[in-house]
Amino acid sequence: MVFGQVVIGPPGSGKTTYCNGMSQFLSLVGRKVAVINLDPANDALPYECAINIEDLIKLSDVMSEHSLGPNGGLVYCMDYLEMNIDWLEEKLKPLIEDHYFLFDFPGQVELFSLHTNARNIINKLIKKLDLRLTAVHLVDAHLCCDPGKYVSALLLSLSTMLHLELPHINVLSKIDLIENYGNLAFNLDFYTDVQDLSYLQYHLDQDPRSAKYRKLTKELCDVIDDFSLVNFSTLDIQDKESVGNLVKLIDKSNGYIFSSIDSSAVEFSKIAAAPLDWDYYRTAAVQEKYMKDDEIVQKTSGMQ
């Protein structure tokens, strides 16, 4: 069995940064990671990707050839990838034996809440390559500071969960920056656990723009409460402990932790011996040095 993550979320939620930091963290704990870029609009990759959709199709070419805007171009690219799924399968097959996959998808939310192309691509890969994938849906934590935007994020998260039908983890990303946007109306637990949304009503009424849609907002909150599916984990991608806690949740959701319980325990024990400064911007050379230092520490410990 092959395990991995489908990384999705609105533009600016930090998907590419997440893939960069997560790939480094997983390498640090001993996993071989392959990052697959399926976002044809992502032309400035901070990580080394094993497979790049731009080798198959480029958004700029689609927009100029078919006179499409960015959104229409992305839909076209996903449709094209679905029709040429054999290309992606052939690229993935050499990596299946010993790699953990991170799929970096586009940020257009319609692809995961309305259109079927992205879902069909994921389902075909799961069936043909026997993948065990978890959808990691990133939402910028600053949306908690605005009740209206928070309700919108909840509705988007719920729609995506129902549409993709995958093991699913919603994540409030950039949690370390949330204080920069002002004070929260409630404790952070209120937003992560998605507690009684009726408490938001007063704060929504304070905004004239939201007050006129009071009845609609109440009905949307009731829908979210009735499903009772949405909650959030938090993430600071520069904090090893935060990333590690999220990895454990993902491993439980897709079954990785049950496939090799002993090896998982060994992986996370390495974190204690790793350097204390966790910087997801570090270069590959520095990362290699950290891995060598980790091996020396383990050998020294074994001699004592």
UniProtKB/TrEMBL annotation:
Gene Ontology molecular function: GTP binding; GTPase activity
Positions of transmembrane segments: none
For this protein, the record's CDD domains field holds:
GPN2 (cd17871)
Q: Which UniProt keywords apply?
A: GTP-binding, Hydrolase, Nucleotide-binding
* Gene Ontology cellular-component terms listed: cytoplasm; microtubule
Query: Record keywords: Nucleotide-binding included?
Result: yes
**A biological-process GO annotation:** cell division
Q: What InterPro entries does this protein's entry cite?
A: Gpn, Gpn2, P-loop_NTPase
Under Pfam families, the record lists: ATP_bind_1
- The superkingdom of the source organism is Eukaryota
PANTHER family per UniProt: GPN-LOOP GTPASE 2 (PTHR21231:SF3), XPA-BINDING PROTEIN 1-RELATED (PTHR21231)
- Report quaternary structure and partners: Binds to RNA polymerase II (RNAPII).
Sum up the protein's function in the record's words: Small GTPase required for proper localization of RNA polymerase II and III (RNAPII and RNAPIII). May act at an RNAP assembly step prior to nuclear import.
Which protein family is named in the record? Belongs to the GPN-loop GTPase family.
Name of the molecule in the record: GPN-loop GTPase 2
List the lineage, top down: Eukaryota, Viridiplantae, Streptophyta, Embryophyta, Tracheophyta
